[in-house]
Amino acid sequence: MNRTLPLVLMAHLATAGAAWAAAPPPTKPVSITFYSGRWYEIARIPNAGQRNCHAAYSQFIPSATGIFRVNQVCRRGSSMGPARTVSAKGRILPGSKGARFELSFFGGLRKQEYWVVDRADDLSWGLMATPGGNYIWLLSREPVLDPAARAGIVARVRTLGYRQALEFPAQPPA
Hints:
Elements: H1 4-21, E1 37-44, E2 53-61, E3 67-76, E4 83-92, E5 100-105, E6 110-119, E7 125-129, E8 136-140, H2 147-159
């Protein structure tokens, strides 16, 4: 009998449980205005889709139907490098008080759910995560956060259970 398979399954279940524990469900309702305008990416857990991605931001374009568009822009090589844009269609998930949404990429071939796990009362910043706890992003309405405010929000990321290293993509100079 292969003894490796049960060990691999146990390790997978243990890490899946740990990852799930790191993604607390949203507790604050999120206004529809959260899903409009520009959000600058201040910090993130590194991921393959954003390798070598600088000056990242998302432009949310609302509609009257509750469906919105998102253009995610990333600059390659440096904060002044060539821009790459990925567009998605989004919708707020019913029963979530606005705090859970789904983005559909590539004409619906890929879908991903996201949670707003915390936010400022004035919607000046938000923490967006995947439900499995693998990824989190600190987004801000401004391209640069005050260092003390940024440190406080990063501490909040840690209290939410995220232990992974964060990266801080540079935004272009003003």
